[in-house]
Amino acid sequence: MTAPADPFRFTTLAHAGRAILGPLSPGALGELLGGLSLPAPPAVLDVGCGKGELLLQALELLGGTGVGVDPNPAFLAEAAARARGRVPEGAVTWVQARLDEARLPEGAFSLLLCVGATHAFGGTAEALAGAHRWLGPGGRALLGVGYARRPPDPAYLAFLGAGPGALPPLPDLVAQARNAGWRVEAVRESSLAEWDDYEEGYAAAVERWLAASPGDPEAPAFAARIAAWRDAHRRWGRETLGFALVLMGIPEDP
Ligand SMILES: C[S@@+](CC[C@H](N)C(=O)[O-])C[C@H]1O[C@@H](n2cnc3c(N)ncnc32)[C@H](O)[C@@H]1O
Questions:
Q1: Which residue's CA is minimally distant from atom 13 of ligand 1?
Q2: Does residue 87 have its Cβ closer than 6 Å to ligand 1?
Q3: What Å distances lie between residue 160 and 157, 167, 189, 197, 241, CA to CA?
Q4: What is the mean pLDDT of residues 117-130?
Q5: Per-residue CA distances from 27 to 35, 80, 118, 131, 166 (Å)
């Protein structure tokens, strides 16, 4: 019997050698969290934490404890290794699960991070509708969301398998957050340099792996996948995609 294919293999390879799995420079999170005052003691939940770099940065800045949730065991193994020596022993717990399988205490966190992972909720609208469930009074959510810097080409949406409303412009996203009752406190847009670093690094990591693994049974499929992705990004994505960190206070707060 052959072992089932690892569903995370492509994304794990594409993010090899990268700590933050999105178009963000190492200091991006600190620009929003520096000076933030949270109910003590800070308790941070990171939904779709990847390699845990953003959660670890948050704990380094704010102190307190953290829980990182992600279904990819390879990312969580790296997260656990990264945590050593950066936060006190036992300050962070890694939960290998999808958000809908993770048993998380409601109302127990003062900061929820969900950066590049709102699909864990079902999408950005669902994240805006549901993220406050895990926050206590005075809590904040920091979402990292994609948006359209200009109207997406229908062919690009078709390539992404996305519907017409899937990539709203940033003002619409901010309005959506306010309509969901959040108090929007800060918005940070990623630069084109951050995007280029991320997208070129993503493709280069897969190409490095392909060069080193010519006989791998998944190599032909991964080669086709990264070629199509890079082409679509250069043709449409680079001009179209935006990414923003949005820091928000929960609706109940005055
Ligand atoms: C683009 S990465 C972002 C990782 C991290 N937030 C960062 O910015 O470095 C998206 C992450 O969401 C995780 N993910 C996918 N589906 C998920 C789900 N249903 N629940 C929780 N995490 C999920 C993936 O495994 C991946 O690590």
A1: 48
A2: no
A3: 5, 11, 22, 21, 12
A4: 95
A5: 14, 21, 21, 24, 28
Atom of ligand 1 nearest to the CA of 51: 9
State whether residue 212 is helix, strand or coil: helix
Q: d(Cα 178, Cα 43) in Å, to the nearest integer?
A: 24
In Å, how far from its chain's centre is CA 3?
Answer: 29
**82 burial level (CB within 10 Å; 0-12, 13-18, 19+):** middle
Q: Is 181 a pocket residue for ligand 1 (Cβ < 6 Å)? A: no
229 lines ligand 1 (CB under 6 A): no
| DSSP for 48-95, written as a single string | T-TTSHHHHHHHHHH-SEEEEEES-HHHHHHHHHHHTTTS-TTSEEEE
The domain 28-191+239-249 is classified under which CATH number: 2.60.40.10, 2.40.40.20, 3.40.50.150, 3.20.20.70? 3.40.50.150
**Residue 98: which pLDDT band, with cuts at 50, 70 and 90?**
very high
Nearest C-alpha neighbor of 170 from the set 147, 142, 193, 203: 147
Extract the runs of DSSP E, i.e. beta strands, from 170-210.
Answer: 183-189
Q: Residue 2 above 80 pLDDT?
A: no
Backbone angles phi, psi at 93, to 5 degrees: -120, 130
Q: Is the CB of 56 under 6 A from ligand 1?
A: no
User: 23, 243 in Cβ contact below 8 A?
Assistant: yes
pTM of the model: 0.96
Q: What are the sequence ranges of the domains in the chain?
A: 28-191+239-249
In tens, the pLDDT along 25-56 reads 999 999 999 889 898 899 999 999 999 999 99
